[in-house]
């Protein structure tokens, strides 16, 4: 599946995170405790769906928003609690929804 556009969409579900990885018509879903663990699980699913790394493009999203995922993931990587990470994610989604379309 070279040159395959892959999305990994993360959704907070209670204390866990659900991530759905989609590559073309194929998709797999998994739950993990914490965003870092969800990101690790997403990498495993990505490797299952598109084992060839050459030309592979992966876009990570939080509820469909790449900016929100990046914000939440960086918060989590810097040691903030899952609650703080989810708050950052909600704030990023809220900010993205307020930015006027160009």
UniProtKB/TrEMBL annotation:
<protein>
    <recommendedName>
        <fullName>DUF2188 domain-containing protein</fullName>
    </recommendedName>
</protein>
